[in-house]
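Troubleshooting: if your tokenizer reports a length mismatch, compare against these two reference records.
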Amino acid sequence: MTLALCALSHSPLFGINDPGPQTINGVVTALDEMRAFVRDFDPEITVVFGPDHFNGVFYDMMPAFCIGSGAVSVGDWGTEPGPLPVDRTAARQLVRAVLEAGVDVAQSERLHVDHGVSQPLEFLFGKHYTQQIVPVFVNAVGLPLGPMQRVRLLGEAVGREVASWGRRVLMIASGGLSHDPPVPRLEGAPPEVVARLIDGRNPTPEARALRQKRVIEAGRAHALGGASFQKINPEFDAQVMDTLASGRLTDADAWTNEWIERSGGHSGHEIRAWLAAFAALSSRGRYRVTNRWYWPVDEWMTGFGMMTATEED
């Protein structure tokens, strides 16, 4: 077995807002099982597909996709700050292969990543992990967004390349599912927010604390039925997970950006990371989902899903 996959939601409110013991116990148990899945697979390298939330990537240069041949965690929401253990040779090789496949992808020698990449890695490998990685940024908040077909083609190109390496490669997909957190939008934003969305790197501790306070309060209001943000949509989440589990990935080509946002919330676009990872796995042929979990967690403002999958023997 050469390729395996872990797809999981992330949430900055994990460990902060309490959804109750039943949900917590379920998620913790599922994470334990996912970690066991990873240990059994014993990856030699991990490719992680994930978004950013205007913490590392900004409108001063907003690529649709970017592969990090070097990366640093910004350390938001309790994740560890600092350089990440990127396999630079593998990353550069992957950039060349994706470009040769006809998919435009940027390369960064210092990709700044936030909890959208760091949290799932720390969930699965622990803090201060040494697992060699290649981070693949998949834009999900910087409008305008391209069609889902391009995301699938990116994943397929990544999968074809990594399958040729003769190494055990784990794909991680981070994001989603349906959720509508208070992520600012450029259109109509006041001047100070526009400036931050264009280049908001290295905020002061006070500015970061204020942003996080707003998110925490939004999650608590959402749990109490506040109507300011779109509700979690379990039907949308099930459709996404069912489609990915079925292997009918070309069905996602018909998912318009308008439908995703209407059904899954403004940040429902993070399902792009899931599609890319499953498309990478599909490059080896048929695959099977070995486990699947889901909770609609109002306190975390997200439909929290998790899946593991492997190639079919």
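Reference record two:
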Amino acid sequence: MISNLAAGVRTFTSNAFLVDGERTVLVDTGANFDAVGAIRDRVGGLDAVVLTHTHPDHVGNVPAVREAFDADVWGFDPDHELVDRPIGDESRIQIGDHEYLALHTPGHKDDHLCFYAVKPQVLFAGDLIFQNGSFGRTDLPEGDRETLIESIDRVRETVSEELAALHPGHGPSVEADAYGHVELAREAARF
């Protein structure tokens, strides 16, 4: 089961997806809200935190979550102070009940990752792709529009047209024609 702990939160934060199952994982912690309390309201513990990238709105709650659950934090950049364990490009990581393929997808930030599971057809897109063809900013440090387009192309080539759910770093999840939203972002980023 996937639930967005930041749903309804009225503060500057990213989405924070709690994936319950064989390995209970939080995909991004969000910032500026009580993520620890939200986790405790839903599950008894947390096995790991997986980061799509290390912008403050996605990692602000990491220290509190790490301390409360003694959970390792996984991310692309092993030198980042909040990352305990590295996730390499095309490595596989257990999130909930499924194995996800990690895709290094820079352009918004150098350490950006997307996570895709074939069996349930689920994509955690971070700040690369959003609903209705929106895509990540490239005007922040480490942002690069051409690199972002290449990353969107890579995701499009990797995911199936049967993609069942796209969970972005901000805004609502997409559970109808999720692949179409990837296609729209691909087109929109080129203009």
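Descriptive notes for reference record two:
- The two ends are 36 Å apart (CA to CA).
- DSSP finds five helices and eleven strands in the chain.
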